Amino acid sequence: MVTPLKTLMGFSVHLNVQLKFYNLPFIRDQSDLWKYFLINSLGILLANMIFLIDINRIGIRIRQIHWKKYRSRFLSSLLFLAIPLVASQLYTNIDSALVGTFAGTHQLAFYDQSQKIARVILAALTSTSTVIMPKMAALDGHSDQSRLNKMFRLSLDVTLVVSLIFALLMMVNTNNFIPFFFGSSFVPMRQNMYWVSLIVIFIAYGSVFSLQLALAKGLYRIYMIPYVVGALYSLFANTLFDTKYGAMGGTLVIVTTELIVCVLRIYMIRDYIDLGEILRSHYKMVLAFVITLFVFKIVNFDGFNLYLSFVLNSIGALLCFVIMTLIIHDKTMAHLLYLLKI
Q1: 288 half-sphere exposure, CB direction, 13 A CA radius
Q2: b vs e for 31-68, b when ≥16 Cβ sit within 10 Å of the residue's Cβ?
Q3: How far is the first Cα of the chain from the last one, in angstroms, to the nearest whole number?
Q4: Distances (CA, A) of 132 to 14, 208, 337
Q5: Which residues does 220 contact at the CB level (< 8 Å), separation at least 6?
Q6: pLDDT tens column, 255-303
C-alpha cells in the first residue's frame, strides 16, 4: 500500500536540489562572506516554497492535513530519513575540514578541487533516482512486482553503463584535463582526480539500490545504516591518513568510504532482489572497464596538444570499452545498444 509518507518522500527529495549561485558578481572578496550565506539561504527558502506550492498539484492541501493524527505515525520514519542526511554530510563536507586541519590549505585545495567534476556528474546521474523513486513506490504499493523489477533492472543497467563511461573518460583524460581546466599549478592533483573518479561509479550504482528500491519500499533502516557506517569510517580514517598522506590520504578515504557505502547498500537489499543474477550480469562490464583503463595506461594520445589529446583519448576509450563489452559477450551492453537502435 502506498502510504502518505511514501508519496511525500518522493517530493521531499526535491528539497535536496538547492539553488546555488557560484562566482556571481556579488561575491568578490572575504568581506562578502555574509552575501554568500544569504544567497545560499535564500536559495533553500525558495526551494522549499516551490515544494509547498507544487504539492497542491497532487491534491494535498496543507490546511486539510490532520497534523496531530499523523505526527506519531511519521515521526520515527522522518527520523530515519534525517539521520542519513546528517551522516552523509560528515563524509562529504566535514572530510574537507579534516584534510585542511591535518594537511593544510595547500593540500585541501588539491583534495577539494579534484572532486568538483565528479560531483557535477553525480548530480546529473543521481537525479535519475530522484525522479524514478516515486514511480517505484507506486508500483510497490500496487504489488506490481514484475514491472517494478523490470524498471529497477533497466535503471540499474543504464546507471552502471553511464557511470562507467563517465569515470573512464575522467580517468583517461586526467593528465590533459587538469592543466587545461585548473592550470599548471594544479598538476600535482592528477593522482587525486584519477582515483576520485571512481566515486562516480560507487555513488551512482549504490543510489539505485538505496533510493529506487530501499527507500521506495519504505525500508528506512536499510537505507540509513550504510550512511552511518560510512560517516564513522570516514571520521576515523581521515584522522589516520590525512596527517601523513595529505590530499592523497583524503582521496583514499573518500573513495574507500563510498565503496563501503555502495557495498552495504547492495548487500543489505539482498533479500528483496536476485543479487546473484545482477552481479553475474554486471561483472563483465566492470571487467571491460578495467581492461580499457589498463590499455590506456600503456597506449594513449597524450603526445598531442591538450585539446586534441582530450578528444582522441575520449573517443578511443569509449570505442575500446564498447568493443571489449561485446568481445566478452556482455549482454547488458548489447541490450542497451539494441534499445538505442545502434
Answers
A1: 26
A2: eeeeeeeebeeeeeeeeeeeeeeeeeeeeeeeeeeeee
A3: 40
A4: 12, 9, 22
A5: 77, 80, 81
A6: 999 999 999 999 998 888 888 888 888 888 899 999 999 999 888 888 7
